[in-house]
Amino acid sequence: MGSGGSRAAQVPDADRIRRETGFSQATLLRLYHRFRALDSNKKGYLSRVDLQQIGALAVNPLGDRIIDSFFPDGSLRVEFPDFVRVLAHFRPVDDEDTGTRDPMQPEPLNSRMNKLRFAFQLYDLDRDGKISRHEMLQVLRLMVGVQVTEEQLESITDRTVQEADEDGDGAVSFLEFTKSLEKMNIEQKMSIRILK
Amino acid sequence: MGIQAPGLLSPWPWLLLLVALRGSEATSALNKPTGPPAQQAPGAGLASGPALGERITVFELDYDYVQVPYEVTLWILLASLAKIGFHLHHRLPGLMPESCLLIIVGALVGAIIFGTDHKSPPVMDSNIYFLYLLPPIVLEGGYFMPTRPFLENIGSILWWAGLGALVNALGIGLSLYLICQIKAFGLSDVNLLQNLVFGSLISAVDPVAVLAVFEEARVNEPLYMMIFGEALLNDGISVVLYNILIAFTKMHKFESIEPVDVLAGCARFIIVGVGGVFFGIIFGFVSAFITRFTQNISAIEPLIVFMFSYLSYLSAETLYLSGILAITACAVTMKKYVEENVSQTSYTTIKYFMKMLSSVSETLIFIFMGVSTVGKNHEWNWAFVGFTLAFCLLWRAISVFTLFYVSNRFRTFPFSAKDQCIIFYSGVRGAGSFSLAFLLPLSLFPRKNMFVTATLVVIYFTVFIQGITIGPLVRYLDVKKTNKKESINEELHIRLMDHLKAGIEDVCGQWSHYQVRDKFKKFDHKYLRKILIRENLPRSSIVSLYKKLEMKQALEMAETGALSASAFSRPHQAQPSQGTKRLSPEDVASMRDLLTRNMYQVRQRTPSYNKYNLQPQTTEKQAKEILIRRQNTLRESMRKGHSLPWGTPAGAKNIRYLSFPYSRPRPARGGGAAAALEDADSSDSELSFAMFHEHSPARSLQERQRIQQITTVKSLNRGGKLSSSGYQISPSQEEHVGRSRKALRPKPLFHPVDEERESGEESGEEASPPGAGQWAEHGREPRRPLLRRK
């Protein structure tokens, strides 16, 4: 972004992206600038390395997983529309969205269900639609300091799975996951104010 | 007298104080019948024999010689002990601001002095206050100001702080004048000018004092900056206004003030303000320039920093410009460059010394306030005091809501009503108002005592009542979720979502007004940094230092049982659960506690500032821990043959992904600590990190040299690129290993992210300082912004 460049840069395919994600024009432009800023070799797409250069992600316990969520299905590059699509999950929910939505349209990306689905995929790495006990243990291990022993971690995992698991298969399906979080204000927790 | 302040645990300082005062009293009573004189010939104390004054006395007591410094030291010590006690109690610091404590201690000392009829040493007069006590306080505020958010919100801050102070001062002054006109209150002799002066001094707020109380409510960054910015500029503006109005009072009888004078006053106000800032900036640059050359004598670096700041203050005061604004501007300007130039220990010294000085100043002022409180020179006038209080609140509300209404029009992210309420309620007065009231010249203000009384009442009210209730208010406004106990499930998921949100916020970066900052950043990089930042030689090899660090960390972690094989290398052997166990509620509760206590904290985006203390380093430790763990995990996984430990199928993507470090020296992902963003610097540090990452003990010396060469390569690829769009050089350059080895200044590998890539802003305050905390030898603070060279 040179001093004159920021105004001239046009977001490619802006209308389609806007319809799909619901971002405003200004936000989309900012995201485009950000995308280009992260794109270190001006390749036109982002690779994992580009995202890893964000230092704050390095000290985020879930940093790796967050980066992985930008690269679904094992792809190596993230183009701008896909980048925006991931971020669209975090758009704050407008109140008028829920009321007047056309039922024929697909659910907006920032609906509660989609937000939950996004969070779910952070746990469920093998994409089998269920969080196995093993996967839960992995996440727990990532998020907890080193002073907790393995036995404690395992018992916490057991308890976590036990609380949510209703059909007794020892794993937490997406529906069970949703149900265990029904009291939580997901719309507020997973919304970022600046992504209006 | 009992111990009245909460949290004070030790009675010894009280006894000590009492003994000292009794002793002094006794001594002085014995020596001269007319009160304790300051200049007493030493040696004329109690004599062990008949007091003829001709024998050599074996044992003497001379208190008057040391009285002033002795008592001052005792006061400071007392306040420190009280603070220790205050912080030992878990809940107190979150309940009330620390100024409360200082005021209580001051009142106590005042009570003691009053009770023993002791004449307090004349510590505070106009000269001492303005020359010695005030500069450290202002310097500390300016130095710890986080620059990037400050500059981003500078329009709103200037608008609010500047106009707010003016509106408040004039509003309160005028309203009080109207009240004084009412005959019934017996205030008719207080004229307009005196009211205006009083208005200006009572409008000096100190909102930073309450910041600690609602810190954990996650106040958003712009709000935080408004409060901080207001505190910073408010002092300066109040003092300028105060001085101008005092000059008016001295100059004329108020009837003969003409519009010309008023205009001249306004012009002077602007000149004083702007001139002060200008002076400060110049001094800031000069001191930054000088620190460029101090690498061989780093012990004087703190001295230079302090002396130049102080000099800026004094020089500005010489020319009747605003010294406060000068020293603030000096600190803000100087900070960025000085931080990069000085050694690690100097940096720490500067920080701590600044805190210490300002803390001492403020303590003394509060003690003096306490002494004045418990005294005989009060003049209580119900109307004046009551209306002052009412008008303070009223005018603050008016100024907040109107000024923000206007500035919200121009902001991208306007302040909500809740934010404005918080700003309104944080208008706590502090030491500044009291000092200005205390220093009113009695000749011009015959009713000075009434002013002082009113000021004291306002301060007590705001500090205690507002200070204590602002915490609950903020929490209430925050509309947090209900406090009922959540299940373990929910806790885990909530924390996960918080981390996720923080991570995505980091991906989005900071958004601000690009163009102006862009231009300034380019100017900064092109010219300023070349002049002001030193270039120097590496002091030791990066590689060996890293090894040292890792070894130390590994030892520590092994000792705490963290690096046991089970923690990391048994992912695939996690047993399936052996049936669900029945857990009692207590077990669940204890499990939940365990979880809450041990989960990693979510990274705070807003800077946190505590006026009385430097932040503890827990975030640094946590960041270090996370980084080391990630590294270790990756190393384990690579040793096991390219599969990530969390059981993803070792698909093609993973193998290719992880094989980077082995195939070619591309900036591989490395354990995720490949931070640092700037154009060429990014590849530099992540490359070096990638190299370190694969630096297993089996590495040969030759490869180590290769590593070092590669790291030096980066330094060459800068310079002319800064004017370009700031993007990274092409990957091919990374493979030019054989370049000439330019001396490379060792950099910390883990930088906070600089989100503004285009503009290359380097504020180090956003991200938590990642793991380079022990790299003291390199003299770089882990929080340090990214270093650049020519």
Order of helices and strands of chain A: HHHHHHHHHEHHEHH
- Total number of distinct structural domains of chain A: 2
Fraction of residues in β-strands of chain B: under 5%
Number of strands of chain B: 0
Protein name (chain A): EF-hand domain-containing protein
Domain EF-hand (chain A): 111-146, 152-187
Subcellular location (chain A): Cell membrane; Cytoplasm; Nucleus
Keywords (chain A): Calcium, Cell membrane, Cytoplasm, Lipoprotein, Membrane, Metal-binding, Myristate, Nucleus, Phosphoprotein, Protein transport, Repeat, Transport
Explained architecture:
The complex is a heterodimer of chains A (196) and B (790). Chain A is mostly helical. Chain A has two domains: 75 residues, Recoverin, domain 1; 84 residues, Recoverin, domain 1 (Orthogonal Bundle). Chain A has a two-stranded antiparallel sheet. In chain A, helix 10 packs across helix 11. The two termini of chain A are 23 Å apart. With 790 residues, chain B is mainly alpha-helical. Chain B has 27 helices and no strands. In chain B, helix 5 crosses helix 13 and helix 14 packs antiparallel against helix 15. Chain B is globular. Chain A: This is EF-hand domain-containing protein. Chain A: It holds the Pfam family EF-hand_7. Chain A: Belongs to the calcineurin regulatory subunit family. CHP subfamily.
Task: Give the gist of this structure.
The complex is a heterodimer of chains A (196) and B (790). Chain A is mainly α.
What would the keywords be for this entry?
heterodimer, A: 196 residues, mainly alpha, Recoverin, domain 1, 2 domains, 13 helices, 54% helix, 3% strand, globular, disordered N terminus, B: 790 residues, disordered C terminus, lipoprotein (chain A), myristate (chain A), metal-binding (chain A), transport (chain A), Calcineurin_B_homologous (chain A)
